[in-house]
C-alpha cells in the first residue's frame, strides 16, 4: 500500500498557515510522491480555482476604498514574493538537476509521481456573485479514476452546480481526460 504521509504533511502545513493567516506555496516530497499546494490568507484578494488563481478585488466586497486598496496591495505583495522565491528555487534545483544528470547520469520525468491535490469542498466565495437563494458559493471538486470508474468528488451534499462556459468546458475536458485513463 502506498504511503500517504505526504498528504498528512501538506495538511499539517496548511493548518499552520490557516492558524497564522499567512500565504504559502507548499512543496513536499516523500520517497515515492510529490505534492504541491498554494494557500492564501483571508486578508488578501487571492483565491484558488480548479486550475487557476483568482485575483478578485471588487469595491462592494470592502467596507472602504482604503480597505480594498490595502487588500489588493497586500495580495500583489504575496504574488511578487512567491514569484521571486519560486524563481530562486527553480534556479537552484535546476542547477542541481543538471549536475546530477551530467555527473551521475540521473534521469527525471517531469510530473511523474506528482499528486495535484486541492482542498475539496466549499471555497467560501461566490465567484460569479450569488446566483439565487439556493446558491451556497464556490466548490472545489475532485475528478479522479478509482476502481474502474471516473469519480467526481464534491466533499459535501450538493444540490446543483453552476458553471460559466469556460468552467463547463474545462470540467468536461477534465472528465474526458480521466475517462481516457480507463482501461475499458
| Spatial extent as radius of gyration | 19 Å
The strand order across the widest sheet is 1-2-5
The number of helical segments is 3
Mean pLDDT score:
85
Beta-strand fraction estimate: 15-25%
**Number of beta strands:** 9
Assign the structural class, choosing from mainly alpha, mainly beta, alpha/beta, alpha+beta, or little secondary structure: alpha+beta
Helix content: 25-40%
**Which regions contain 5 or more consecutive residues with pLDDT less than 50?**
none
Main sheet attributes: strand count, strand direction, barrel closure: 3 strands, mixed
The rounded distance between the terminal residues' Cα atoms is 24 Å
Shape: globular
Number of domains: 2
Series of H and E elements? HEEEEHEEEEEH
How would you explain this protein's 3D organization?
The protein is of the alpha+beta class and 184 residues long. Helices cover 40% and strands 18% of the residues. The strands form four sheets. A three-stranded mixed β-sheet has the order 1-2-5, covered by helices on one side. A two-stranded antiparallel sheet has the order 3-4. The longest helix is centred in the middle third of the chain and has 40 residues, at 65-104. The relative contact order is 0.11.
Amino acid at each position: 500500500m502506498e504511503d500517504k504521509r505526504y498528504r498528512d504533511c501538506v495538511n499539517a502545513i496548511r493548518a499552520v498557515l490557516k492558524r497564522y493567516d499567512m500565504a504559502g506555496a507548499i512543496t513536499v516530497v516523500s520517497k515515492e510522491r510529490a505534492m504541491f499546494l498554494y494557500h492564501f490568507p483571508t486578508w488578501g484578494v487571492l483565491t484558488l480555482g480548479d486550475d487557476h488563481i483568482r485575483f478578485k478585488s471588487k469595491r462592494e466586497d470592502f467596507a472602504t476604498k482604503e480597505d480594498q486598496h490595502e487588500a489588493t496591495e497586500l495580495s500583489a505583495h504575496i504574488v511578487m514574493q512567491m514569484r521571486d522565491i519560486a524563481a530562486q528555487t527553480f534556479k537552484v534545483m535546476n542547477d542541481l538537476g543538471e549536475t546530477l544528470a551530467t555527473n551521475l547520469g540521473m534521469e527525471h520525468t517531469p510530473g511523474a509521481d506528482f499528486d495535484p491535490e486541492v482542498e475539496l469542498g466549499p471555497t467560501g466565495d461566490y465567484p460569479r456573485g450569488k446566483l439565487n437563494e439556493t446558491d451556497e458559493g464556490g466548490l472545489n471538486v475532485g475528478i479522479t479514476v478509482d476502481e474502474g470508474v471516473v469519480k467526481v468528488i464534491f466533499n459535501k451534499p450538493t444540490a446543483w452546480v453552476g458553471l460559466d462556459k469556460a468552467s463547463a468546458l474545462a470540467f468536461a475536458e477534465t472528465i474526458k481526460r480521466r475517462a481516457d485513463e480507463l482501461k475499458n
